[in-house]
Amino acid sequence: MACSAAVGLPGFMRLACTAAILAWGTASAQAQSLLQLYQTAHGYDAPYQSALANAQASQARADQARAGLLPQVGLQAGAQRNWAETNVAGQSSSRSFNVLNGSIVGSQPLYRPANRITWDQGQRAAEAARVQLDSVEQDLIVRLSQAYFDVLAAEESLAFVRALKAAVAEQLESAKRNFEVGNATITDSREAQARFDLATAQEIAAENDLRVKKLALDQLVGLTGVDPRPLAQPIVLPQPQPQDVNTWVDRAVNQHPAVVQSRMALDIARLETAKAKTGHLPTVDLQASVGQNRYPDGNPSVSAAPSARYRSTNAGVGVVLNWPLFAGFAVENRVRETLSLEDKARADLENIQRTVAQATRAAYFGVQSGHGQVAALEAAEASSLTALQANQLGYQVGVRINIDVLNAQSQLYQTRRDLARARYDVLVGLLRLKQASGTLSADDLLPINQMLAAEGARPPVVVAPLAPMAPAGAASAPGATAPSPADATRPARADRR
C-alpha cells in the first residue's frame, strides 16, 4: 500500500509510512544531477588534470623533435686584446692591439634519416598521450557514477533500515500490549526488543556508511554537502546495445585506449629499430656562414699598413658529408636491442588485447546478470510483501507468532535494499561495459541523467503498513480480511499458550 493512500488509516498504520517519508529528509533545493557533477569533477579531478598536463607535455616534446628537420642559425661575437713582440737582427719591438669579430652561422639538414624518424616517434608519443587522456576521462566517468550511486544506495539503505525500525517498534508495542492483557508470553516482547535493538545497530552503521560515501563524492567533485538527485520511479533499466557479446569484444580489441596505446608503442619500437639502422648511413648538411673581423688599432700581420685600421669580411656556403664507417659494432648491437624491444612490444599488445577481450566479456555478462537479478528481486519483493501481510494477518488470528512477523519484515526490507543496490549496479555496469569496449564518453551520461527525478523531488520509500495487532485468538477487526485456509490450519506454537 502506498503511503499516499494511508490518510484514512488508523494512527498506528500510518506510523510506518510517515517514518519512511521522513527518513528521506527534506530534499535540497540545490540537488545536483549526475551530469552537473561530472562537469564539476572534470575541472577538479587530479588524475584527469595530470593526464591533461602529460598530453600537453608530449605534444611539446613532439614539436621539439621537429627541430631536427628545420634550419639552425647562430650568432657568434667576440672581443680580445692581443700582444705581439718581434725580434729582427737583435732589434725587438712589441705592440698590443684589439680584435673584434662577429659571424652568423647557419645549417640546414639535407639528409638525416634519424631526425625524420625521431619526429615520427614524437608524433606517435603525442597521440598515445591523448589516448591516455581519453582513458583517464572514461575512468573519471565511471568513478563519478560509482560514487554518485553509492550515495543514493546508502541513502536508500538508511531509509529502509529506519522504516524497518519503525515497523519493529510497532510490533514491539503490540507484543507488550498483548502481554499485558495476557494474550502473549514475555517471549514475544523479548524477541521484538532484540530485533529493535538490531535495527538500531543497523541504523547507526547505515548512517556512518552514508557519511563516508558522501565524503568520497565530495572529494571527487571538490564540493561539500553534495546532494545527488535520486532516480525517478518507476525505473526501466536500459539494455546494452547491441546485445551481442562478440560485437562488444570486437570494439574493445580495436578501440580500447590500452590497446591503442600498445599499438602505438609497437609502432614507436619499429621506428626505433629503423632509426638504429641509420647508424651506418651518411648525413648531409648545408652550411653557410658570414663573419667580419675588425682591428681598431691596426693588424700587425699586414705589412703594408700595420698601424692602420683594418677590417676583413668572410662568407662561405657549402655542403658537408659525414659518413661513419666503423663504430666498434655499436650500431649492430643497437639494432639487436631494438629488435628485441620490438618483440616485447608485440607481445605486450597481444596480452592487452586478450585482457581487454576477457574484461569486456565479463562486463557484458555482468550487465546481463544484473538485469536478471533485478527481475528476480522485483519478484522477491512482491513475494516478501505478500508473505509479510499473510504473517500479519496470521498473527491477528493466532496462527502466527511474533517472530514470524519480525522475520517477514526483515526479509522484505532486505530485499528492497538489495533491489535498489542491484539497479544501481546495472547502471554502473553499463558504463563499465562501454569503458571496456573503449566507447565510453560524456554523452553516455545523458540517458542516465534523464532517468533522475526532477529538481527538488525525492520519491519516498514505499512501506507496507502494519495490520492492526489484535490479541491472539480474538475476532478480527471490522473490515479485516479473513485468513486463508492454509493460514488457519497452521497450528499455533506452544509458547503462545
Topology of helices and strands:
Layout: H1 11-23, H2 34-42, H3 46-66, E1 72-88, E2 91-111, H4 113-180, H5 186-221, H6 245-255, H7 257-277, E3 283-295, E4 310-322, H8 330-397, H9 402-437, H10 445-450, H11 485-488
Antiparallel strand pairs: 1-2, 2-3, 3-4
Helix pairs in contact: 1-4, 2-4, 3-4, 4-5, 4-7, 4-9, 6-7, 6-8, 6-9, 7-8, 8-9
Q: What can you see in these coordinates?
A:
The structure is a single chain. The chain has eleven helices and four strands. The model is unreliable at 1-29 and 462-497 (pLDDT under 50). It is α+β, with helices and mostly antiparallel strands. The protein has a four-stranded antiparallel sheet with strand order 1-2-3-4, with no helix packed on it. It starts with 10 loop residues before the first helix and ends in a 9-residue tail after the last helix. A hairpin with a 2-residue loop joins strand 1 and strand 2 (91-111).
What would the keywords be for this entry?
4 strands; 4-stranded antiparallel beta sheet; alpha+beta; disordered N terminus; 497 residues; disordered C terminus; 59% helix
The percent of residues in helical segments reads 55-70%
General shape: elongated
Structural class: alpha+beta
Give helix and strand order, one letter per element, not per position. HHHEEHHHHEEHHHH
Biggest sheet features: 4 strands, antiparallel
